[in-house]
């Protein structure tokens, strides 16, 4: 015990606070702390430790942290703790860029409220679902809705979604929702709420344009940032040279060589996802696909199969790279590398979450090799060249071509 005391005594004040502060020290009602404990969640992450008190105080807040650090809980917990379930009125609106993220947020709300008890009602509002069915469900008067901006605004303008008692609007994945035409939709949703509502912006990146747009909507914005532009240090970054037409076969060989527990494969085009899944299934690899043009049923079935482990490989457009919590992803394969470094960051963020080990493998056509230098420069990562040799990955020495076990 004396040694432990001495060790703590040698820490800075901030380090000692970080060490001793659990969820009880963040100002949350004990029932929410107990709800977390029932899910075996006992210690807050850095972003939760900093963001929860700010959101509890009603501050307009920009929450920025790398993927896998628990940003959703960082804003959901304090918002649920402040929510008054007595009146039959909408109080919290959460905007998300994809159906999957909205559904994931709804699942998290239901899990928390089930463990904590109470009568908080929530609903998902997304396109591709029966409009009449959503109108019928709104008769239950949800306290919280999570949805895509277009469908939420459609319901507001038809006067089916009443915003006059909303106390908070959350813009999740703000770097996707505060750009181009979708920003106008988000603005319209925010303007339909009372002027004194709280605004929360959430992102895995800290981009000047996005934060500038957020400040225009909330001039007194509090920035809570624990490193939103960083790639997890637990991810290994590899790349393989493969001609474009040979990439599907190379992917199949790489999956056999690395034996991922669960793998995400990113492609650019919707049709590529479906075609690639068919090719992998032909070789007895359990693969499913998901993309923006898929209907709700197709997307839901694919996600459930992947989460259950019925499918080992999920092939996707960038849809899956944003905000989704996909447990157990050990490998991310980029069949089509993104041109922007930030998109690479989002993609690989599906693995190496919460300190777990992960592996990212890029399939690079010779004409795409410039992207290796771009990712290295922009993200500060070490991309290692590898090749397949007798069914195993070996390191490729850049100068001499000598190889060593990877």
Instruction: Compute the number of structural domains.
Output: 2
Largest sheet: 9 strands, mixed
Task: Tally the beta strands.
Answer: 16
Rounded mean pLDDT score: 87
Going by CATH, the architecture of the largest domain would be 3-Layer(aba) Sandwich
CATH superfamily of the largest domain: P-loop containing nucleotide triphosphate hydrolases
Count of helical stretches = 16
CATH class of the largest domain: Alpha Beta
Termini, distance in Å? 42 Å
Radius of gyration: 22 Å
Which outline best applies? globular
The main sheet orders its strands as: 10-11-9-12-13-8-14-15-16
Low-confidence stretches: 1-20, 399-406
Q: Specify the helix fraction band.
A: 40-55%
Portion in strands = 15-25%
Q: State the CATH topology of the largest domain.
A: Rossmann fold
Helix/strand class: alpha/beta
Features:
16 helices; alpha/beta; seven-stranded parallel β-sheet; disordered C terminus; 406 residues; single chain; nine-stranded mixed β-sheet
Characterization of this structure:
The protein has 406 residues and is an alpha/beta fold. It has two domains: 2-225, P-loop containing nucleotide triphosphate hydrolases (Rossmann fold), CATH 3.40.50.300; 235-405, 3-Layer(aba) Sandwich (Rossmann fold). The protein contains 16 helices and 16 strands. The protein has helices at residues 2-9, 13-20, 30-38, 46-56, 71-82, 99-116, 131-138, 149-157, 174-177, 180-191, 208-217, 247-258, 270-282, 296-308, 341-348, 370-379; strands at 61-64, 92-95, 122-125, 144-147, 168-171, 198-203, 222-225, 235-241, 263-266, 287-290, 313-316, 331-334, 358-364, 383-389, 392-396, 403-405. Helix 15 (341-348) links the parallel strand 12 and strand 13 (358-364).
């Amino acid at each position: 015990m004396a040694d432990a005391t001495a060790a703590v005594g040698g820490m800075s004040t901030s380090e000692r606070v970080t060490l001793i502060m659990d969820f009880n020290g963040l100002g949350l009602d004990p029932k929410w702390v107990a709800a977390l404990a029932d899910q075996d969640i006992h210690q807050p992450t850095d972003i939760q430790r900093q963001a929860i008190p700010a959101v509890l105080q009603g501050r307009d807040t920009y929450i920025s942290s790398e993927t896998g650090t628990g940003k959703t809980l960082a804003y959901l917990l304090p918002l649920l703790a402040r929510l008054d379930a007595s009146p039959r009125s909408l109080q919290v609106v959460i905007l998300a860029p994809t159906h999957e993220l909205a559904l994931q947020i709804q699942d998290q709300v239901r899990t928390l409220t089930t463990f904590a008890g109470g009568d908080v009602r929530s609903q998902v509002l997304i396109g591709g679902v029966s409009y009449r069915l959503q109108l019928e469900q709104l008769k239950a008067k949800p306290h919280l809705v999570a949805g895509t901006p277009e469908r939420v605004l459609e319901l507001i303008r038809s006067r089916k979604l009443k915003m006059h008692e909303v106390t908070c609007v959350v813009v999740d994945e703000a770097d996707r929702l505060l750009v181009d035409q979708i920003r106008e939709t988000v603005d319209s949703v925010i303007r339909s709420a009372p002027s004194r509502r709280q605004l929360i912006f959430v992102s895995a990146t800290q981009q000047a344009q996005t934060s500038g747009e957020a400040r225009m909507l909330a001039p007194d914005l509090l920035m809570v940032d624990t490193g939103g532009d960083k790639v997890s240090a637990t991810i290994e970054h590899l790349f393989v040279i493969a001609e474009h037409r040979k990439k599907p076969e190379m992917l199949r060989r790489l999956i056999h060589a690395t034996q991922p527990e669960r793998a995400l494969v990113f492609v650019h085009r919707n049709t590529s996802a479906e075609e690639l899944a068919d090719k992998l299934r032909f070789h007895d690899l359990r693969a499913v696909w998901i993309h923006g043009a898929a209907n709700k049923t197709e997307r839901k079935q694919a996600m459930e199969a992947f989460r259950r482990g019925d499918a080992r490989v999920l092939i996707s457009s960038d849809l899956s790279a944003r905000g989704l919590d996909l447990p157990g992803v050990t490998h991310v394969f980029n069949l089509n590398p993104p041109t922007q470094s930030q998109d690479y960051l989002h993609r690989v963020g599906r693995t190496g979450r919460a300190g777990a080990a992960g592996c990212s493998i890029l399939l690079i056509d010779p004409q795409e090799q410039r992207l290796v230098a771009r990712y290295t420069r922009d993200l500060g990562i070490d991309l290692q060249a590898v090749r397949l040799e007798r069914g195993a990955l070996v390191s490729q020495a850049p100068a001499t071509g000598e190889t060593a076990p990877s």
